[in-house]
Amino acid sequence: MRTYVAVAIVLVALGVGCQAQAGGSSPKLTEAEIESRINDLLANMTMAEKLGQLLQLDGLTTGEYRPEHIELAQKGLLGSTLNVRGARMVNELHNATMQSRLKIPILLGFDVIHGYRTLFPIPLGETASWDLEAVERASAIAAAEAASAGLHWTFAPMVDVMRDPRWGRVMEGSGEDVHLGIEMAKARIRGFQGTDYSQKDKVLACAKHFVGYGAAEGGRDYNTVDMSERRLREHYLPPFKASVEAGVGSFMTAFNDLNGVPATANQFLLRQILREEWKFDGLVISDYNAVQELINHGMAADGSEAAMYGLNGGTDMEMLSRTYVDSAARLVETGKVTLATIDTAVRHVLRIKFRLGTFTDAIKKL
After folding, report:
1. Which residue in the list 160, 257, 287, 361 is annotated as catalytic?
2. If you count Cβ atoms within 10 Å of the first and of the last residue's Cβ in the chain, which end, N or C, has fewer?
3. Residue 287 annotated among the catalytic residues of the structure
């Protein structure tokens, strides 16, 4: 473990050097200042620019952006990317963003599950150690290494409670025990985010998959989930609630439905529990193509209905599919989605970008 800590210290030192050469960091905005800046941006954004903030597109698995990303960034029509990383790629994408009208930075995400360059045991193996300090340190080292490649955001930890060994993603979580799952979730979030995820060696964490993904019938991935509210609240929600209390900045929706309603469009989960009961004010992103897959669930007839259900359900950002950018403007015109719903989703995205410090120092981590 001393070796891992030494690696982290070296990465931090390198980051400090890069930041010093760039002229130092800007003062941290207060929450009131952040909300004021968001209000100013919303008042000046076109509908196309707003919907662009709700779009995450994937780059190549090798870290390169796609040519389309540059074009969209120059127009201010891309909110986030998946997989894009590395100094050259990040700088080129950032420079394209700075050519846009409002110069809103792009949020760079990547699956950092059990290490970035330095690999650690799979999360289930880490959990079996019961060593919360080691788990937190492993996440902290992963965060520092990921941040050094220009990344802002990891899609971890997975905090699903899992009680069927047939499910193919058991290795990514913390097993069947609720209490242990809570403690591991908090440890990993502390490691990834620290006390301030705008710091150069930290990244935004993401609690996933909200919720019930590990309870799929028959252990079949994507399968339906049917359970009482008591079981949901006593067994499956606690690690997610603990994640909010630990300060996690983002949530990812689950692929599954819960009692017949897909999680990505589930107002009971995303609006009542997450926003109203738990007072979460961060960003909610869909899983990969999950908004489009509301059609596969049989909930939506087409992409326009998928966008309507996703936005009204409480999913802020759409990963990969483009139903929001393709259909949301028309949905607002026809009254199927309110402008306030769009603005709230955009606010959640912008709030995280401000808290990360991307507006003042978007590539400070390189």
Report:
1. 287
2. N
3. yes
